[in-house]
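note to self — DONT lose this again. spent like an hour looking for the file last time. sequence + predicted structure for the chain T wanted, 96 res
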Amino acid sequence: MYLVPLLLGLGLILVGLALAANHCGIAQRTVDTYLNPAHADPGLLQTFNRLGFEHPGMDFLRYAPLQRQFVRIFGGFLSVFGLALLAVGVVFLVRP
């Protein structure tokens, strides 16, 4: 029971640090795959086409560098949240 916050905190720290440090270009890949509307659901893109206007995020390439920065900053916040969760897990583990 007390091991769950420890493992979850450690996992969040590792993922957050990987995003914040852009290890192996993971921030770029995250932006390219998850935030690019060209990779959106084909049904959603067809709905926008049928309605006669463009997907709101299709100017993706203009904002890609800012989105990479946002993902790296979010990774920093994620690792801080993981540290807090790890601290709570340690307190629960050490508490008699």
